[in-house]
Amino acid sequence: MGLTEYCLEAGVERLTWLTREKLYNVAIAVWETEPLGRPWHHEVDNDTYIPATSKIDITALTKQRATLPNPNEAVSFTYRPVGAQYRKAA
Fold first, then answer.
1. Do 36 and 51 meet the contact criterion of CB atoms below 8 Å apart?
2. Cα angle at 65 between 53 and 85, to 5 degrees?
3. What is the pTM of this model?
């Protein structure tokens, strides 16, 4: 849901990405998603990936919020930049 909200705020209307096959079903349940090619098996991690594109819109956000106990309540989160756990405190 956070990704969808960010994209809406930033004006991003589509995401093009590579998803693990087991997460593709989650993606199609959340966003209008289309595969961009055939699944690809990666020998190193023994996992299968699917290239896909997903439409980001208010319908997707509404669908995601409907899964919350209180869909109109603000969802709080803590943002921590990548690598923040490695920085020394000032």
1. yes
2. 75
3. 0.67
